[in-house]
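Supplementary notes for students who missed Thursday's class. We covered one full example, reproduced here. Read the sequence, then the structure, then the short commentary at the end.
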Amino acid sequence: MIYDKIFIGGSLCNLIQCIELNDKILIIERKNILGGAWSVKKYKNKKIETGIHLIVPPDNSYFDIFNKYFYKYNIYFKKIE
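Structure (token representation):
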């Protein structure tokens, strides 16, 4: 199969770009899951998301803007305490 573009790594940024391009795209990822640093880990029987802290500052000042952007991709986030 011939692809229009090839992406190395399945990070969140690459996945969003793939959605927006709407081309035939091959994603090469070394791990068995997509998301890069944005993934869910288990710690003491609790699921901990590891990526949003890289984008949203601790004071949540950009949370609503961030959530509004991903809404168009049917991706939703909620604040946890």
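Commentary. The longest helix spans residues 12-21. DSSP finds two helices and four strands in the chain. If anything here is unclear, bring it to office hours.
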